[in-house]
Amino acid sequence: MAFTLLESLGLEAENIATVTTAIGNHDEGTGVPVNPVCAALILADKSDVRRSRVRNVEINGFDIHDRVNYSVKRSVLKINEEHTIIKLKLTVDTKYGSVMDYFEIFLGRMKMCRKAADRLGLEFKLIINEQQLI
Fold first, then answer.
1. How far is CA 122 from CA 43, 46, 52, 67, 108, in A?
2. What tens digit of pLDDT does each residue of 15-51 get?
3. CA-only gyration radius of the chain, Å
4. Strands 123-128 and 85-92
């Protein structure tokens, strides 16, 4: 689908290959940051945790994904000025979901983020409630 869309927009074959490769390699189970575009996609996608992702309006009906996403009051992904470190800083309200719940869902994703950051020549850091965890 992406190939057809990009081709219809007139992108060159090399750019189409870069984008479709990135899309195909960001899957959590098998994804590998094979190029910088893919690494950027992995970082953006796998670090995405936020309250607005929760569609269930009934807190008592939350599953673990809802609890974790709802518990995140603030999420910032930022590269330092020296371009050596990328930090995912989260503010988590542990009233709704624990840090352990976060790791139960996101550990694999954070490992992918670390590999993606490495592909970009960056060090990945995870900070939750002002505590550096990775």
1. 11, 16, 28, 30, 18
2. 999 999 998 887 777 889 999 999 999 999 999 999 9
3. 17
4. parallel
DSSP 19-76: HHHHHHT--TTT----SHHHHHHHHHHHT---GGG-----GGG--HHHHHHHHEEEEE
Domain ranges of the chain: 38-132
d(CA 88, CA 81): 15
Token look-up 């992904």 returns 77
* pTM to 2 decimal places: 0.86
What is the model's pLDDT at position 25? Answer: 80
